[in-house]
Task: structure prediction
Amino acid sequence: MPDHSTFSENRHGRFRESDAFRHLFESVLQRCMTEGLVGGEGFAVDASLVKADASHQRERDDDDDWGGGRAVREYLEALEEGSAQVGASGRRISPTDPAASYTAAHRAKGIYAYSNNYLVDTDHGIIVDVEPSTANIAQEVETTKTMIERVEQRFGILPKRLIGDTAYGTAPMLDWIVETKHIEPHTPVWERAKRTDGCFTRSEFTWEAEAERYICPAGKPLLRYRRRFSKPRSGVPKDQILKYRATKRDCEGCGYKPRCCPKTPSRKVSRSIYESSRDVARAIAETDAYQQTQNDRKKVEMLFAHLKRILKLDRLRLRGMSGARDEFLLAATAQNLRRMARLLSRPPPIPGVTRPA
Result:
């Protein structure tokens, strides 16, 4: 019988260096695929916060001298390599687990936490990939790209549709889904605050792609430039938002001005450089299939509920990003084994008899 410290040392050494937990997870996933439990038609993605093994009452400035500890060493090494993820904590850092993000999301008091990201096949709720990240929406979105590309590279599976909430409906993410991966985005589009003053919204302006202009309800054009330049301009600003403007002369005598631009001399309409991909997501949101996929997204939420309530993984025992990765991989492996055993142990269907799900 090996001593408990033997397993602990191997877990932080050989197990982690050989990526044993990733191989274990993928071998179970491969068995699920062999048994026909992974369809690959639709993947759902979501993230859930898991508390880190760090007290929210202790913090330090990142300019202070750091002590020892594996989590601290890993964090400092990641900073030197430039691979450390930037969390939502800013300069509020835990001295025991500096890679954890300080966040107050959904809680009265702030906590140090990691985001557990799941990519789930919606046919039977099998987890096809899992990856930790800081508790930051931008990092969660980038982690989704990593998971999709890893599943495509290792298993040759690219889903037909990707299902997510509004956090995954940003313009750059939708463009990556539509133009780069050619996947249907079944996610709500992240819109800016809608107008509440009763004025015309952008949807009431007609976009003419060939002429690269908007047409207002009165039939007047809104252009980016109204004069020719000797050197062509790309005109793409840093925020990747293009501005189309009407002339003051067109707006002054227009009968729609009180409903269009009552407080400005002329009307301006903004358009993202990824607007075509956003239009694809808006069109999909009007279909019946979209309503079904939004119900399928609950399968990810059910897995997170099972993770925290049944498996009791509401707080990590290991520290650092590598510790979070180990625990999330082992937990996802257990959930897939449980789901596979449950599905494969069902008796064969009897013709004419419908069993409860």
Summary: Residues 320-344 form the longest helix (25 residues). The mean pLDDT is 85. DSSP finds twelve helices and eleven strands in the chain.
